[in-house]
Amino acid sequence: MPLYRSMRKRENFAKPFGVLNISIVIVILAYVTIGFLGYRKYGSEVMPSVTLSLPNEPIYAIVQLMYALAIGFSYLLQMYVAINIAVPAVRQRLINLKKSDFVLDLSDYIGRAFLVTITFVLAASIPELDLVMELVGALVCSLVAIIIPTILHLVTFNDRLRGLSKAWLYFRNITIILIGLMAFLIGTYFSVMGIVERLSQQSAHHSHHNQLYSNSEHLVAKITEPNLLNVTLSSTLANL
């Protein structure tokens, strides 16, 4: 909605070949192409981000640098909607409190910096970010992108349609809601199973490491026992 309100020709937003549909098709094709080529090249060993699977060579380092720059320069656009919703609400409360223009501008900058910083902190502090993103995508995206908009559309047009149009509205929207629920359940199940499997592998690795460390300590303790040292020294002196 913020992007729609900022457009000069809003009628071009929701056309069959309008801004929304064309941009979504381009994004889907880009993601599918990169995902297919990445899996085609590296198979099941591909990293959560395909750039992490690239070899440590100068040409691939340039690709990783360009990817990082693309994310950095497009980050403001990605945060536009969240900032456009959160910051004006805080600003309006400060206006009601009759704060000065300096305080209003300062609150804008602090709010924007906070929203950007907290995402960086979360990305850097979460150890298994790929699994968390899968779970968030399964939980949130299915609800926000499919289920909730369809329910709102059904409630909005429920009293405006009659006859076959209303029946088609119910059939179409209920079908979309069921697809969203299926994606929600399947995605959540596989995400949780992936988290459990990763944690089990890490637990097994730590247990094996601790077992090796315990065995080495036990061996050192045996070697350094007084009786064993005396026997070893006596045997060595006898051979001499």
UniProtKB/TrEMBL annotation:
One of its GO terms (molecular function) is L-amino acid transmembrane transporter activity. It comes from the Eukaryota. The keyword DNA-binding does not apply. Keywords: Membrane, Transmembrane, Transmembrane helix. It is a multi-pass membrane protein. The keyword NADP does not apply. It holds the Pfam family Aa_trans. Residues 2-192 form the Amino acid transporter transmembrane domain. InterPro entries: AA_transpt_TM. Its main location: membrane. It is found in: Membrane. One of its GO terms (cellular component) is vacuolar membrane. This is Proton-coupled amino acid transporter 1-like protein. The lineage of its organism: Eukaryota, Metazoa, Ecdysozoa, Arthropoda, Chelicerata.
